[in-house]
What we know:
Rossmann fold; single chain; alpha/beta; Dihydrodipicolinate Reductase, domain 2; 329 residues; 2 domains; binds NADP nicotinamide-adenine-dinucleotide phosphate
Amino acid sequence: MTTKIAILGCGTVGRQVLLQIHAHLSRLAALGRPVEVTGVLVRDPSRPRGLGALEGLLTADASALGEADLYIEVMGGTVRPLELLAPAIAAGKPLITANKALLAERWDALLPLAERGLLRYEASVMAATPVIAPLAQLGRSAGPTSLEAVLNGTCSYILSRMERGVSYRTALAEAQSLGYAEDPPTLDVDGWDAAHKLTVLGRLLFDPGFSLDRVAVQGIGDLHPEDLAAADRAGQALRLVAEISFEGGWRGRVWPKRLPKDHPLAWTPLSRNALLFSGTDGGTWLLSGPGAGGAATASAILGDLFSWAQGIPGPRPLGWVAAPPPEPS
Ligand SMILES: NC(=O)c1ccc[n+]([C@@H]2O[C@H](COP(=O)([O-])OP(=O)(O)OC[C@H]3O[C@@H](n4cnc5c(N)ncnc54)[C@H](OP(=O)(O)O)[C@@H]3O)[C@@H](O)[C@H]2O)c1
C-alpha cells in the first residue's frame, strides 16, 4: 500500500525535501514502502519555486493534509505546526521534523509519538550530520559527563569575520546577504537557536526533564573585534559554545567562550558544526560536519524517512531517568 506523505513547508528545507523524496521514490518502493507526496503546505502557493510539475502539490489549504499517513514538518514555529499536527499526533501517525524550536519548547505535545518511536528529528541538530542516533547509542553505552558544541553556523561565520577586524554589524549584514542568517537574525545571534538544539540534546542524553529554562543564554551581539583580537593574543579563539555540565543538576549554557586554539571546537572549519561528548568511562567523542542548509538538512529528513521505511523506530527516550552526576575527578 502506498504511504501518503504530507509536507508542511516548502522553503529552504522543504523544497529540497520534496525534490529528494521524488529522486528516491524507486528506492523506497524497492524497500516495500512506496510513498506518494499528496500535499505540501505553504502560505503562498502562487509563488514560483522552480519545482516544475511538483508545484501542483503546493497548497495553502491545511484541510488538504488531513488524509496523510506520515507527516514531515519543515515550516518552523511552535504554535501553528502543533495546531496542524494535533490530529495526526492524536492518531499516532509518524512525524519527521527539523524544527528544533518545536522540539525544545513543546516536547510535551510530541512525547506521545516519541515514546512509541514515531517521532524522528535527526535534522533538528547539526542538520546533515547524524548526532541524534549516534548520541542516543553513546548515551546507552557510556553515560554522559558533559557536552560542548558549536551548533550555529551563522555565529561562527560572524565571529570569523570579526577575527579579521570586521565590525559585528557589518559581519551580520554579510551573513544576511549570503543567506546564512535568518530574517530576523535574533534566534541565531542571540543564542536561542543553539539553546533549542542544546535542549533537544540535554533531554535525549542527560535528563528527560531537561528544558529550555535550564539553559543560560548569551549571544554574540555585544562582542567587538577587539574581544576577538584579545583572545587571539592569548592563543584563544572565541566561539558561540553550547554546553551541558553538572551543577547540582544538569544545566546548559550558551555563550561566547574562549577556547584554546588547539581545542577541537576551535579548529573545526567554520562552515561546520561540531560537538564534543564526554562519557563516564573517560572517553570523548567528536562529531563534526555540515550543520545547516536546505539540501543538507533535507538529506537528514530523507535519512529519517528511510529509517521509517526500514522499520527502525525513532530515537526513544533513554529510560527516562536523569544521568547520574559525574564522579569527582
Ligand atoms: N534552513 C536550515 O538550514 C535549517 C537547518 C536545520 C533545521 N531547520 C529548521 O527547518 C524548519 C524550516 O526552515 P526553513 O529554513 O526551510 O524555513 P523557511 O525557508 O522560512 O520555510 C518555511 C516554509 O513554511 C511555510 N510556512 C511557514 N508558516 C506557514 C503557515 N503559517 N502556514 C503555511 N505555511 C507556512 C512557508 O510558506 P511560504 O513559502 O509560502 O512562505 C515556507 O514554505 C525550521 O523549523 C528550521 O528551524 C532549518
